Amino acid sequence: MKSFEYHMTTDILFGMGQEAALPDRLKSYGKKILLTYGGGSIKRNGLYDKLRVLLSDFEIFELGGIEPKPRVETVNRGAALYKREGIDMILAVGGGSTVDCSKAIAAATYWEGDAWDMVVHMDRITRALPIAVVLTLAATGSETDAAAVISNPNTHEKLLFFSPCVLPGVAVLNPENTYTVSPFQTASGSADIMSHVIENYFDREQAFVPDAINEGLLRAVIRYAPIALEKPSDYEARAQLMWAASMALNGLGSTGKNFAWSCHYIEHELSAMYDITHGAGLAVLTPKWMRFILSEYTVDKFCDYAVNVWGCERSEDKFTLANRGIDATEAFFKRIGLPSTLSAFGIDDVHFSMMAEKACRIGRLQDAYVPLSEDDVVKILYMSL
Ligand code: NZQ
Ligand code: ZN
Q1: Strand 157-162 to 147-152 pairing
Q2: What pLDDT is attached to residue 83?
């Protein structure tokens, strides 16, 4: 286990009706709030009206229409609004896309020039507006992490930036706000949570405590995603998924590890180029990547995964057992209704080499759990076709 510093300062308000605490929590930031949201789900399910009433003592400015896979133009639009109106803080109400866009706006308000430059030069970010979140979709963990993913459709780039400045100060996690999430987004979000955990779990550094947490988080998603799909208003299922999503990416599961991910960088190239939902792309890639990297070097870890996550018997031959865990992963994604091939999303091999080059360069995949070359990534993409 490597040495680490762990610092997570988001004030998490978890449970039914926790929005009610917002006026009190937000007043120390100032009066002018930029309320950000996506394509309208919060208007359809009543959350928008509820928040407007709760926040009636504040001066509210709005930026709606944030798209899934938020675009840099939207970030620039939000930052311009701040510069015009002198906003004190951002309240992001939505899923990972709204939260990510809001983080980028929060930092871009103090950035001279185009926000894309800021995303590319994340180490130069020094300040950001305070951010609060009302989460509506259990998936990315953006509500309690210091990362954001922004897309540039002109160049087909999708980049992740990190900055401690954009860690949300307050996050309201009310599972009821996820009741209206569609089956496809519920399943994609669940696959995304699992992928975050799997990326942390399969790491060259052995670390028992974070891996015990990781195994527990995976078991939670495996147990509760099917329940949430069957009964969208099951509070307990939505609550477990919501907490698992935040726990999966708040840094706990990667403490003492290398944090050298693989599938996410490949998926970001897919969703930068094609209309594919992040979690659904991960559900296609992850089992194929697992099969590709299974070897004498990784087999013991895969056996732990099969036994501790999927409940397989340890009595079998190591490779049989390891494959059983991978088969179970693939079958689970199918069971929750996610496609298992890229062709199901209309994706062919035309851009494979270019995507592999970018994934390796941006994701530094030579340092991953099992180092991946461009050729390796192309092979994984072909296995996923
Ligand atoms: O836009 P609205 O109308 O709100 O609809 C959204 C959107 O269409 C809908 N939705 C959200 N909450 C809902 C709801 N529909 C009904 N009821 C609700 N309560 O779901 C759709 C998808 O929303 P989105 O925010 O795009 O999903 P998600 O949370 O999965 O975010 C995906 C983005 O986050 C990035 C992904 O790459 C992608 O761009 N990621 C961010 C990370 C981070 N910041 O740490 C890490 C992740 O690995 C990921 O890369
Ligand atoms: Zn993800």
Answers
A1: antiparallel
A2: 81
The pLDDT of residue 8: 87
How much is the mean pLDDT over the chain?
A: 97
Distance (Å) of CA 91 to CA 64, 88, 101, 118, 132: 12, 10, 11, 21, 5
Site to substitute for ligand 1 among 133, 137, 167, most atoms within 8 A of C-beta? 137
Q: How far is CA 296 from the centre of its chain?
A: 31
Q: What is the pLDDT of residues 15-28, one digit of tens each?
A: 999 999 999 999 99
Give the mean pLDDT of 129-152: 98
Full set of structural domains in the chain with CATH = 11-178 (3.40.50.1970), 183-384 (1.20.1090.10)
Using left for φ > 0, alpha for ψ between -120 and 50, and beta otherwise, residue 251 falls in left
Does the beta carbon of 95 lie inside 6 Å of ligand 1? yes
* Nearest by Cα to 95 from 184, 181, 28: 181
Determine how β-strand 32-37 pairs with β-strand 59-63.
Answer: parallel
74 Cβ inside 6 Å of ligand 1: no
CA distance 170 to 148: 16
Backbone angles phi, psi at 300, to 5 degrees: -65, -40
H helical segments located in the chain:
22-26, 41-44, 47-54, 72-85, 96-108, 115-120, 183-201, 208-230, 235-248, 263-273, 278-293, 299-308, 318-335, 352-363, 374-384
Q: Residue 188 CA: which ligand 1 atom is closest?
A: 30
Is 384 close to ligand 1, i.e. is its CB under 6 Å away?
Answer: no
Q: pTM here? A: 0.98
Q: Are the CB atoms for 260 and 369 separated by under 8 Å?
A: yes
**190 ligand 1 Cβ < 6 A:** no
